[in-house]
Amino acid sequence: MLHFSEVLTRLDHVHYISGQELADVNNVTRATIHNCIQKIAALGIEVDRVRGLGYRLKHPLDLLSKKDILNNLPDCVRNGCVETHCLQEVDSTNKFAASMDLPGVGSYSVVLSEMQTAGKGRRGREWVSPYAANLYLSIVWPLQRPLHEAGILSPMLALKILQCLESLGIPDLGIKWPNDIYWQDKKLAGILLELVGDAAGECAVVVGIGINVNLPNSAADNIDQPWVDIKTASGLNMDRSELVSKLLNKLLPMLASYEHKGFAAYRKEWQEKDFLADETVVVTMGANKTVGTARGVSERGALLLETNHGVQEIHGGEVSVRKSA
Ligand code: BTN
Question: CB within 10 Å: which end of the chain, N or C, has fewer?
Answer without folding.
Answer: C
